[in-house]
Every structure is written in structure tokens, then in C-alpha cells.
Design a protein that fits this description.
The longest helix has 16 residues, at about 10-25. Strands 2, 5, 6, 7, 8, 9, 10, 11, 12 and 13 form a ten-stranded antiparallel beta sheet that branches. Strands 1-14 form a two-stranded antiparallel ribbon. It has a two-stranded antiparallel sheet with strand order 3-4. The protein is mostly beta strands and about 170 residues long. The protein contains one helix and 14 strands; from the N terminus they run βαβββββββββββββ.
Length: about 170
């Protein structure tokens, strides 16, 4: 008789580690991933283009409707909610070393320490830039990466990439 087993711990571990592994350069071919959702429905107007030191652009900017809703790209815990220089920003820890930050917000709707789910409204578009855009940055183990490396796959459940294996 074959027994099929899959522990809840395995599912939780895969849901946290797959995005970080993909961000570190693991191939997504043939895998289901737990990718990030875009924070707004707008198009990317400024790409990821880091430079030396603090120069360059360490995230992507999405065009958003003025006063539109900015949503969490994945579930996690808000670890920062406030102002950075002249911009309102939110940072979420998704576990497994994966953090997302949302900048140029008009209003912030979450508090530090709050648990959020994918799609939770974290703020509104309309910061001090005057462009009506939202800046999304992604860090893995403290290093900024191109957010597009971990976007997508959001329509599939975390368990979609798991295979049940029969054991005798």
C-alpha cells in the first residue's frame, strides 16, 4: 500500500523559500513559484537600474492613478510604516529573507507590527514626487534585487509546485 504524505511544515517552508530561491537566481523552469503581485495596476515607468554605492534606481516605479490603492505584493508583517526623508513608505517582511518596500505613498493605511495578506491595501498613490507613481523595491537577505525577478506566478497556490510522492 502506498501512503501519500505532505506535512504542513513542508508547505510553509516551500511558500517562504521558493521566492527567495528564485530571487537568488534559481531557475523557474518547470517550477511553480510563489511570486509577488504588482502593488498597483499601472505599468512600469522606471526600471531597476542600480548604480555604485547609493546611485541609480534600486527598484521599479509603477504608474498609478492618483489616490489609487497600493497593495501588498505578498503576505507578511509590516516592519516599517512612516516617512523616509520626504516620502511615506511601508516595508513588509515576507519571511525567508524577502522584504518589499513601497514608497511615494500619499497615505499609509497599515501600522508597524501589523500582519498583512497579499492584496492588503498598505497605502495610496500620491506622494511628494508629483508623478503619481509608486516605487517598489525588493530585498533578499538585505540585498536589493530587480523586483521583476520575483513577480508573477501569483495565480497559483503555494502547493501547486509540490508533488505527492508515494512511499511504500
Amino acid at each position: 500500500m502506498n501512503a501519500f504524505r505532505l506535512s504542513i511544515v513542508s508547505v510553509a517552508a516551500v511558500s517562504l523559500l521558493v521566492p527567495a530561491a528564485l530571487a537568488r537566481g534559481a531557475s523557474a523552469e518547470g517550477l511553480s513559484c510563489v511570486g509577488l503581485s504588482p502593488p498597483v495596476d499601472g505599468v512600469i515607468i522606471v526600471p531597476f537600474d542600480p548604480g555604485p554605492g547609493y546611485e541609480g534606481h534600486w527598484g521599479v516605479d509603477y504608474q498609478g492613478d492618483r489616490d489609487g490603492l497600493v497593495q501588498a505584493a505578498a503576505g507578511g508583517t509590516v516592519i516599517f510604516s512612516g516617512r523616509v526623508v520626504q516620502n511615506q513608505a511601508v516595508t513588509i517582511d515576507h519571511g525567508g529573507g524577502l522584504w518589499t518596500s513601497y514608497s511615494y505613498l500619499g497615505h499609509i493605511t497599515v501600522l508597524t507590527g501589523e500582519d498583512v495578506e497579499r492584496g492588503t491595501v498598505v497605502g495610496t498613490v500620491g506622494g511628494d514626487t508629483g508623478h503619481g507613481d509608486v516605487h517598489l523595491s525588493v530585498r533578499v537577505d538585505g540585498e536589493y534585487i530587480d523586483p521583476l525577478r520575483v513577480m508573477g506566478c501569483q495565480a497559483r497556490a503555494p502547493s501547486a509546485g509540490l508533488r505527492l510522492v508515494g512511499r511504500s
